[in-house]
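Hi R.,

Here's the input for the dinuclear copper ion complex you asked about:
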Amino acid sequence: MAETASERAFDTVERSERWWAYAVALIVVFLFAVIIFTGLHWAAQPPSNVETIDASRLHLAGEFMESNLGTAVQPDGSAIVRVLAQQYSFVPQCIVVPTETSVVFRVTSPDVVHGFLIAGTNVNTMVVPGFVAEVRTRFERPGEHLMPCHEYCSVGHEDMWARVKVVDRREFARTYGGQPRASCERR
Ligand code: CUA
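And here is the predicted structure with dinuclear copper ion in place:
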């Protein structure tokens, strides 16, 4: 029995529908493969830990009180740098860190979303009020890096930046060794 014109049209549509279904399935499989590959091979993951903090009480008590900001050398020799990102400055304005040392940056905001980026390094994250952003890194060579806010945070955004001074770890111990919280801010 000969196919009618409408049966032929139906076959054509069905074939093209099936072709598109295969194509979409292939794209989905490819994207999953990319996610799994980057996750495992490059250790790609959301840049921050999920750690919450009460953004309205940062200055009153706890980790991000003014006296706790800056670089603190830990008993194991590593360094923790606590930074406040606020409209429109970073505290401290000048961050000092030793070379060849594992450094953890812990950053939070009392007001709006800011950006935390250290030029020339892999440090780059958002600073969201209510959360603590944590970034681990290591500086091999002494030098100075700019640290601009890279999330638009209102009218003073372009004036919001700080400096990161990397000093040789022996010099760091000599100059800042006696301070519980080091920074290169002029007081
Ligand atoms: Cu802070 Cu832009």
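One thing worth noting: Strands lie at 70-73, 79-86, 89-91, 94-98, 102-108, 114-117, 124-127, 133-138, 143-148, 161-167.

Cheers,
M.
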